[in-house]
Write a structure and sequence with these properties.
Blueprint (H helix, E strand, L loop, with lengths): L2 H10 L23 H4 L11 H15 L22 H20 L8 H4 L12 H5 L19 H11 L3 H5 L3 E9 L7 E9 L3 E7 L9 E5 L4 E4 L7 E4 L2 H12 L10 E11 L6 H4 L11 E9 L5 E7 L5 E10 L2 E15 L2 E11 L2 E12 L11 H4 L1
Antiparallel strand pairs: 1-2, 1-13, 2-3, 3-4, 4-5, 5-6, 7-8, 8-9, 9-10, 10-11, 11-12, 12-13
Length: 397
């Protein structure tokens, strides 16, 4: 595994601790929906943010510098850590946040053009000299976050119609009001061994993913849930453990839940635009994870149509549809934070027939805190689901 992956692997287990602040206060209650500076100590540069958007900001920093928590917090990863203590790197991080804010406000009318990633790109010190192998080698392939509309492409409605037809047609899709899926998962780095997965979904926008690590009960469960109005995340090996999502991550959870029922895709987005077709490949994973993914037929080098749209409160989503089959292969959504967009990516593969409609049996969920590779083995549609399955993580099981 590369050094950068090792650092990120170490960071995912404690990412929800605070780079610019400190330690979780146990008396905070999710129903009060406190801001980050009410939940963590010694927050100075990033106040008045929701907890989940604050945690996303920490992920942006970790990814941008290739750092894990102990590179800014003394004794991080031990029982002697003092998250709230001001270390030289934390003090520098505050200065960098203020510097980037000033650059964007002064030069770009407040638009978020410059972020941590703009300069650092996985390095603690930004590169200052162009490398000749970059100049004369293959150019960068990463897409911009915000894509322009390109004339001459099929319309978004045409691409959506082809997708709806590819997964079974509008009439059959409308007949599916719920489903329960079971399978297995391998987390980032293979932590916890193979996880047992259950997915609960109810039309139009309720969705829960429960991953239990029965071979490592001390690890704790991984749970993401959205009940149509509120959502929660429970993540193993973190300071917060369980917290309610209230910022743009909440909008992302709603989008994921809606896309679980493809028939409503035309009603989800605003400001739709079709960009240039491109080619996508599998999202890379560490060998400690991918070596455990048995019997996987990877999605390699697929030519796709690209549709981008907007959601509430600045949520941005890009959808990638297979040019040949019309199936949705990837969703990338971006949440906004004061220091940069937070990407979350879902890849869909291994589409199979389930009662006359096609559903993806292989799901890869990747965010700045890790990568879950899920292989489903069974999906049952139109089953009764207890409302508690979409509630707080403590009630899910």
């Amino acid at each position: 595994m590369k050094l950068r992956s090792i650092r990120l692997l170490a960071a995912v287990s404690i990412m929800t601790v605070i780079w610019l602040g400190g330690v979780a206060l146990p008396q905070a209650h999710s129903q009060t929906r406190p801001n980050a500076d009410q939940v963590f100590k010694n927050i100075q540069a990033l106040k008045d943010m929701s907890v989940d958007d604050f945690i996303g900001s920490m992920g942006v920093m970790s990814a941008a510098l290739g750092f894990c928590c102990n590179e800014c917090h003394t004794n991080a990863g031990t029982d002697k850590v003092d998250w709230a203590a001001d270390t030289p790197r934390k003090v520098t991080a505050r200065k960098m946040v203020n510097m980037v804010t000033t650059i964007n406000r002064t030069n770009f009318a407040g638009a978020q053009v410059v972020t941590c990633w703009t300069c650092h790109r996985g390095r603690d010190h930004p590169a200052t000299t162009p490398a000749l192998e970059d100049i004369y080698g293959p150019g960068p392939t990463a897409q911009d976050d915000v894509l322009p509309a390109i004339p001459g492409q099929p319309s978004a409605a045409q691409i959506f119609d082809k997708y709806i037809q590819a997964v079974g047609g509008a009439q059959r899709l409308a007949a599916v009001t719920s489903y329960v899926a079971k399978g297995s998962s391998v987390g980032f780095g293979g932590f916890g061994g193979g996880g047992q997965v259950q997915i609960f979904a109810k039309f139009p926008d309720q969705h829960t993913t429960l991953i239990e690590f029965k071979d490592a009960p001390d690890r704790g469960d991984s749970i993401r849930t959205y009940n149509g109005q509120a959502g929660w995340i429970k993540t193993p090996l973190t300071v917060l453990g369980e917290y309610e999502i209230t910022g743009t991550e909440l909008d992302g959870a709603r989008l994921d839940a809606q896309l679980a029922f493809p028939g409503q895709i035309k009603q989800i987005f605003t400001n739709l635009r079709v960009s240039l077709p491109t080619t996508i490949s599998d999202l890379p994973g560490p060998s400690s994870q991918t070596a455990s993914e048995a019997n996987v037929v990877p999605m390699q080098d697929r030519r796709v149509q690209v549709v981008q749209g907007s959601g509430p409160r600045g949520l941005l989503a890009t959808l990638f549809f297979d040019q040949e089959s019309g199936l949705l292969l990837r969703e990338v959504r971006y949440s906004r934070t004061p220091i940069g967009r937070v990407p979350t990516q879902m890849d869909f593969a291994d589409y199979r027939d389930v009662g006359g409609i096609k559903m993806p049996f292989r799901l890869t969920f990747a965010w700045l805190d890790g990568r879950d590779a899920i292989q489903l083995s069974d999906v049952q549609t139109n089953v009764a689901i207890d409302a508690k399955r979409f509630g707080r993580p403590a009630t899910i099981k």
